[in-house]
Structure formats: C-alpha cells, structure tokens
Amino acid sequence: MSSISNYPNTLTLSNGVINNYKEVTVPNTSYSKVVFEDGTVAVLVHTYYGGGWSTNYFDSPTKQHQYVFDSRIVLYVLSDEFKKHFSTRKITDEATKTYEDMMNSIFPNMIHPCVDSFAKLVVKFIPENTMFRIHEYDGAEGIEIFDPNNYMTS
To answer: What is the pTM of this model?
Structure first.
C-alpha cells in the first residue's frame, strides 16, 4: 500500500515543502488533528506577547486541547488566505469577520480568544505521541517537551 493512500491530502507550506497529511479524529471529541507523513502533528501556539491562544482555557483542558489541535483552524492558519488576511499589522474588518465566522462555526455560543491572538498564531510540528505542554508568559506561548531526564520524581 502506498503512503499516499494513508496520507491522502497534500499541503504546500510557506517554505515550499510539500507535505502529505491526514486528519485524525481525536478520541471522544468532535474534532480532528493534522498528522503529517513524517510523523509530526500540527500544534497551534501564539508566540507573541499579549493575549494567549489556548492558555486562555487553562480551566478547561478539553477546550484547550481543541484550540491547540483542531484541524480546521490549523489548515486555515497554514493557508494562503490566512496570510492574505493576517500578515499585515492592521487587521481589516473582512479579516475579523472571517475569523468570527470560522470560530462561531467551530465553537457556537462561546467566547473566543481575540482576533489579535488568532492573527499571530503559528503552527509548530512535534513528533506524534510526544508528551508536551504549552507554557505561557504574558500571552506568549511556547511548547515544552517532556523529557524524563530533565524531571525529578519525589
């Protein structure tokens, strides 16, 4: 069986690299994550100061996980349309409406992170089944990979 059939979708990243991917349903949820043929998973983080992205939902791990992995958001952030709307310093009314429409379709009747946080999202790629956490300082989020050699147990 060819790998193309296991990873039926193709995505060209901004650096020109073409990746095959599949959307994998996250168990016991209503969303999927993006898994690439090289074994990495797409993870959304807000790397600028200001309002965070997923760390706004530290009180709801289920919601936080969806904001980190949801394939609909990931694929939009990796799209040319995202770059067109959100690569400038000024967020237009059209860009704001696009964001609000998308978020309302994914998370109806919920308050969402501000559009400024969305505009500064980046996608990081980490190996599948890697234990990690997203840490935050003043809105800037980063990925911390769990390394058992760097942790202590009491």
So the answer is: 0.87
